[in-house]
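User
New here, explain this?
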Amino acid sequence: MAPQTRPSPPRAPAGTPSDDTQLTFRAVEQLLADGALDPDELAFRIANDRIFGIGTATLDFCNALRTGAPWYEATQYSGGNGALMRIAPTVLPYLRAGGTGLWTDTALSTAVTHNHPLAIAGSVAWVALLWRLLNGDLPESAEEWLDTYLEVLRLLDAGQQYETRVLSGPLLEWRGSLSALLDTEVRPALARQQPVRDAANHWYSGAYLLETVPCVLHILGQHGHDPHHAMLVAVNDTRDNDTIAALVGAAMGAAHGTHWFPADWRDQLLGRVNGDDDGKVFTLIDEAVGRFVA
């Protein structure tokens, strides 16, 4: 089932944004308003309006923030993908001149909602991969996609131990770091060109970072040269497909630009950030290009 024919959520119009879109563009709004990351303002924008399909950790964060707690008390100790899904805009203030502040901002932005070592390490490694792609350095092999992410992740997750959530199979009760999982499971899956759906069923393609990140890197390693197909696979062959497709889409945009993106996919989007602001996404894109790129 292609993205343009995927059923919309119950009672929601086709093209309604997911939480991935909403949170990403609330991050863009904050950067446009303040010129740089401001965690207090980001926290306010995240929690200030309805979020479609909100994840558990982000919901708990929003509820805590609305009681008057500061973000650093409302934040959740969660290894879910709710921060990774919105982290890409962190690069915007650094596109012209670079700077090591990107890494601090990535960690801090993640910690606003997901103050967990797995979440922070996963985000920093992801932004490092996006940064390479934005600089026109496209990996030449499946392993190079994986190794680009691992080069940074290994520096950050040494000694970390997490358990998988699978209910059966070889990964039942598996315990180790995300980098170990990527090395022992994703690397051989890429080498044998295992179909994405089969691999996703093996390590489960849910919202836990030990599931999301392997799926995304497996898709990029196999299909990063073909962004259109990479998106179709992300949508059709994974469980948490809105977030996995959002991450794959961010990487494909960084690597290949937007020329490959079919017009009929874009034309059916409402472009909402909140409940009724149709077209706001497209306005924010134009403003971000003018502010941070042009």
